[in-house]
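User: Can you recover a sequence for this backbone? Please restate the input before giving your answer.

Assistant: Of course. Working from this structure:
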């Protein structure tokens, strides 16, 4: 938690992406609602990362296609995107029931963005839903969950 624009999101996604580049790990970009996981919104979320520097020039950007997060290259002449290594996926907590029977052995990080709702709208029993979701993703192994949110000075004790 912290003030706006102090690097919370940047730091968390950098850790996940750098781990995916160096290893075979993956990250999940988690939002509360399906609407917030549209491919175009997820691409915008990762747009500030210096992918070319992080990959030593092998890739130039991050692309999201059908909720999959990929390292990619953009052809400067045509604008065509060529996807490479898959490094994660975008999920919504409101749809967590859909993931229960699936396996995520390569996922080591969950980035739950805006876990504190600015308008006070939370899912029913959201803490339990998040615990069940993380149990589904990590099963019987360790993983890290980054809860990223704006600190409201009035609510912080």
């Amino acid at each position: 938690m912290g003030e706006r624009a102090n690097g919370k999101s940047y730091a968390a996604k950098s850790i996940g992406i750098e781990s995916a580049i160096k290893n075979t790990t993956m990250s999940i970009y988690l939002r509360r609602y399906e609407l917030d996981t549209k491919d175009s919104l997820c691409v915008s979320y990762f747009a500030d990362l210096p992918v070319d520097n992080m990959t030593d020039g092998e890739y130039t950007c991050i692309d999201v296609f059908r909720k999959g997060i990929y390292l990619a290259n953009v052809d400067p002449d045509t604008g065509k995107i060529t996807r490479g290594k898959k490094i994660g996926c975008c999920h919504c907590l409101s749809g967590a029931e859909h993931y229960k029977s699936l396996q995520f052995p390569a996922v080591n990080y969950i980035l739950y963005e805006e876990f504190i709702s600015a308008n006070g709208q939370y899912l029913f029993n959201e803490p339990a839903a998040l615990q069940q979701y993380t149990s589904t993703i990590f099963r019987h192994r360790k993983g890290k969950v980054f809860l990223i949110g704006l600190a409201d000075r009035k609510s912080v004790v």
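That completes the design. The longest helix spans residues 8-22.
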